[in-house]
Amino acid sequence: MIARGCIRRNARQLTTSTEQAKLFKAVTFLHSNNTKKKRVVILGSGWAGYSFARTLDPAKYERVVISPRSYFVFTPLLASTSVGTLEFRAILEPVRRAPGGLRFYQGWADDVDFSRKVIRVEANAIDKLQHDLSPISASTAASEVATETRPPKGEVFDVEYDKLVIAVGAYSQTFGIAGVREHAHFLRDIGDARRIRLRVLSLFEQCSYPASPGGKDGKTAGKPLTEDEKKSLLHFVIVGGGPTGIEFAAELHDLIHEDLKKIYPELMPLVRITVYDVAPKVLPMFDKALAQYAMEVFARQGIQVRTEHHLQQIRAADGTLGSAHGGLSIKIKEYGDKEVEAGLVVWSTGLMQNPFVEQMVNKQFTAVNEAEAPKSHLLKDPRTGGIVTDGYLRARITDNKISDSNKTAISTAAPVLPDVFVIGDCAVVEGNESLPKTAQVASQQAAHLARQLNRSTDESIDIKSVSKPFKFRNWGTLTYLGGWKAIHQSSADTLRGWVAWIVWRGAYLTRSMSVRNKLMVPVYWFVNWVFGRDISRF
Amino acid sequence: MIARGCIRRNARQLTTSTEQAKLFKAVTFLHSNNTKKKRVVILGSGWAGYSFARTLDPAKYERVVISPRSYFVFTPLLASTSVGTLEFRAILEPVRRAPGGLRFYQGWADDVDFSRKVIRVEANAIDKLQHDLSPISASTAASEVATETRPPKGEVFDVEYDKLVIAVGAYSQTFGIAGVREHAHFLRDIGDARRIRLRVLSLFEQCSYPASPGGKDGKTAGKPLTEDEKKSLLHFVIVGGGPTGIEFAAELHDLIHEDLKKIYPELMPLVRITVYDVAPKVLPMFDKALAQYAMEVFARQGIQVRTEHHLQQIRAADGTLGSAHGGLSIKIKEYGDKEVEAGLVVWSTGLMQNPFVEQMVNKQFTAVNEAEAPKSHLLKDPRTGGIVTDGYLRARITDNKISDSNKTAISTAAPVLPDVFVIGDCAVVEGNESLPKTAQVASQQAAHLARQLNRSTDESIDIKSVSKPFKFRNWGTLTYLGGWKAIHQSSADTLRGWVAWIVWRGAYLTRSMSVRNKLMVPVYWFVNWVFGRDISRF
């Protein structure tokens, strides 16, 4: 350790890359020969990846995180930031600040060589993707990585691993519906929330000019908005009646009725919020009585809920409403030819696999580093396309013929890659295939896996002696409904109204959040309650 | 009042624009015939415009603010937000939330008809300009309004005024130096601060990849950064040794040495900060001893100050350093052909007039609404191009022949437009031509003018009986130097070191700030001191 520290200090004083490179190799060589800490590389900085990286013991393992996003997002409070109830930074945790220290590379995992245990990484610290005001979110823009629209390649380098944890998450699914990717806003990441916030506030400002030009000479260059056009722009459409969509509708309602009502009183009669879902019932994870209560709350608040409605297309509205103001025209099957106009569409339904996952499940490789070894590939779940794992969260592979040298680590009944684990939205745990893709499931898997690895670094020990298979415990579901009301359901109880609201606010303070944000979240709640939400756009 | 309120409530229920337009005219007609409150229209939302609008008595005047920016920026703390010592919203005040209520239109004043007392306004609530990550700031982009690169015109409408206050401020001056507008960052508005913050943090992340590709197959698509390239990217250049430039250098130093040192320790030997100025001495408003003390503090902190250096050109650096990483190559006269490379250039020197001001001073009009009246134009200051005013901040005009009907309001010795006032950076007060263009001067002019108008709404009274001419009181200058040291100079005393730092922090809490921000600023100072500045980029 002392020799290594000494070398590291000297390394800082070297000034040429050649000398540093030689020393880098020397350090690596040293690393392999001393008290070897296994290196665990985590792909992803979401609920699964970040929670796992934080919980893995840095005294036992070297932790390396690779992700195109350098921070973790506390997604249950994302809808609150999209209207200004909270500020964005209060729900971010920079990966580099994880307690205990870890190494971080901002980049995409392009490829993994499972035989040689090497990841090919492409750097992406150059901020080009995330700041376009167009609705395409960072996660969607990330999906363009696989297509020709990809930005210039950053530098490429390799990272070796002893153990690999794939936690790359999933993308929003558009079901191939025309216009969604170009015109709708997702709500899965901070960039999405920021764009939505700016769009909502801008729409109110755009509608706040005098109704008539009032110009004495009659010359006007731009056409002022008519009443009907303002009603179109102030129509806020949410597609998807799950917790994300419902909570966004609730938060938007609060923003409008607590703050914008005082600033733009004349526009209030023109505002509408509508939630569309293809299912017969919104909030499917709640029992019927609670879902019904939610609908009653929404009805009293004036939020329209249209179940069993199918969106077919989104396009720009006709004329300057579309071209200048960004107004949209939506085709809904149940309305035939009559299109619905709106100023904003938030798309919060459906997940699809990350292109990286698609690439990995189709990749042929040899499970062991031998020339004659038979080819394998990761087992893919036929329903969702995710990577199948066993109960110990190890990636399952398809080939049954395993060489003797690996036999102790692999169950002959269900072959796995013993050093590759998969958690979160991209994982499908055998025996638990129906688990939803939620933050709760992802963080429980992450905690389980971290404890499993922390218990023993000795790979010769049978995993069954250090760990049990993963079992999900449902801590219940909470959804905010607006107006200081919420609903909560768990196996123990159901709550509704302001009691559930208190649980809702309290629950979030205890999870996966730094001390800084545990402090800032209540500060923002208080300040925004007393002084109103901030409405500045920049 | 009751009738007017009644009409306003009914107006909200009308649903067609025709009906609303008729009512709008009816209200205007009613307005002219009842207890007439004069309408004061303020162009601008900076120190002069916002301070004036807040101080003008809403019981005596109808207040209307027109500005392309819907919020006021507390500029003395802008440098702090550009590195994360404070968050952006803590220094913003939305115009619409000014106490006592006022009407606001987000837009550009295109033209003013001084005879008919009408302003032609172009709406700009559609957010297109402010979110580009390229260095061109919102204020610079605003200057493109006058050129062909202007975005599509928003709706155009007219606003009538009884009194007009021109407070449109000034733009950053580039002295025609090639490459400044394209590659340098200004620091005058929130968009500028946000771009600088993202750029600084991105540069550190870009330099944090392994020195060698480490790829076993030797294939690399992007070329990794060499040591020298990292030194170029981590060279932060500030042009302008006035308080803005010095404070930014100081804040940047704090960010690097308090926070980034812990996150990117290996990059610290490569970081440099350099301040260039053409003058022989930086901080010209301070006496020699204090300026010298500032230089000593900077020297101990490792900040290089190069006085009497002239920047001639900025261009993209050669190769991928420029094309992929945004590195810059700077030509400095004193270095001959050898260019200086940098990752960021902050341009904080020089002001030039707003195109609106240039248009106004060149505009011929008749001071009174008569066909035969002689032409006038506003008096333009030959040195700065600003609009000249008398001691009562009324716009001076050039024509001496004034018709009898206006004689009581105009001094025959120095003709003015009695209902048009000019304050702030775009104003030049006769007898005070050497006043600097600072927030202090602008806010004192605003306060003076507001008190002058509040004292009497009766225009038949000679202005000299309600007001004295404007006189600037120098409350002193404060500049932060980094490392919890500052300098302060006023006619009463000079302070340096941590004592001045306490005055610096305390002074800002008392001025022009809402209660909300008076609370949030110390909260951020505390939280960022305990937990470190936030480094997430989105």
TrEMBL record, chains A, B:
In this protein, which residues make up the domain named FAD/NAD(P)-binding?
A: 39-446
InterPro entries assigned to the protein according to its UniProt record, in alphabetical order:
FAD/NAD-bd_sf, FAD/NAD-binding_dom, NDH-2, NDH2-like_C
Task: State the UniProt keywords alphabetically.
Answer: FAD, Flavoprotein, NAD, Oxidoreductase
Domain of life of the source: Eukaryota
Q: Which Gene3D superfamilies is this protein grouped with?
A: 3.50.50.100
Alphabetized GO MF terms? NADH dehydrogenase activity
User: What cellular-component terms does GO give this entry?
Assistant: mitochondrion
SUPFAM superfamilies hit by this protein? FAD/NAD(P)-binding domain (SSF51905)
Pfam families annotated for this entry? Answer: NDH2_C, Pyr_redox_2
Domain called External alternative NADH-ubiquinone oxidoreductase-like C-terminal: residue spans: 476-534
Can you tell me which family this protein belongs to?
A: Belongs to the NADH dehydrogenase family.
Please give the name of this protein: NAD(P)H dehydrogenase
Q: Which species is this UniProt entry from?
A: Trichoderma gamsii
Which lineage ranks, top first, belong to the organism behind this chain? Eukaryota, Fungi, Dikarya, Ascomycota, Pezizomycotina
